[in-house]
Amino acid sequence: MTTKPATRTGGRSARVQSAIHDATRDLLEEMGRGALTVPMIAVRAGVTPSTIYRRWGDLSALLSDVAAQRLRPDSPAPDTGSFRADLLAWSEQFVEEMASEPGLALVRDVVCGGYKIDGVAPCLVFTAGQITDMVERAGQRGEPVPSVEYVVDRVAAPIAYRLLMGAYTDVDAAYARRLALACLADWRQP
Q1: What is the pTM of this model?
Q2: 55: phi then psi, degrees, rounded to nearest 5
Q3: pLDDT tens digit string along 61-77?
Q4: Phi, psi of 157, deg, nearest 5
Q5: Around 129, how many Cα atoms within 13 Å sit in the side-chain half-sphere?
Q6: 75: which of 12, 89, 125, 127 lies 20 to 30 Å off by Cα?
Q7: φ and ψ at 5, to 5 degrees?
């Protein structure tokens, strides 16, 4: 399934979705992904398996949806007063969250499950949203800044790629800082 599950914002539908998400998270913690099944989640959530299949299609899409909700940033993008300082702080925070085992597992679930928000992976939606906030604030201060896409391509994408491929061991705060500084140094105003 490659589209966002159709859900209403309130009422019974929201309660059912919340129960299914809660049951999924609990069972993942208790037994891990390998042993998890839709019927197990349904029993724990107090719904029928068909309810889950009707909303998500399969276990992979449900896991992707649950992971996407957990990936939503807990805090706004840094606001230090300058784009340079914001980007440096954000890049270090981004790599710290992405490189953690739970963070990486969530990203893998979202990517593998194909869950999308308006046709785009939630990881990119959340990442670009935070970068957009930093870029817009800097623009309001009169700072010249690169585009959101440029920052995603130069900072976020290399971090995500290296972590998801798993072949690189140098993905840390220092690496994130180097990417952010290179992004700022290489960017040219139009």
Answers
A1: 0.70
A2: -80, -40
A3: 888 788 777 767 777 88
A4: -60, -45
A5: 14
A6: 12
A7: -60, 140
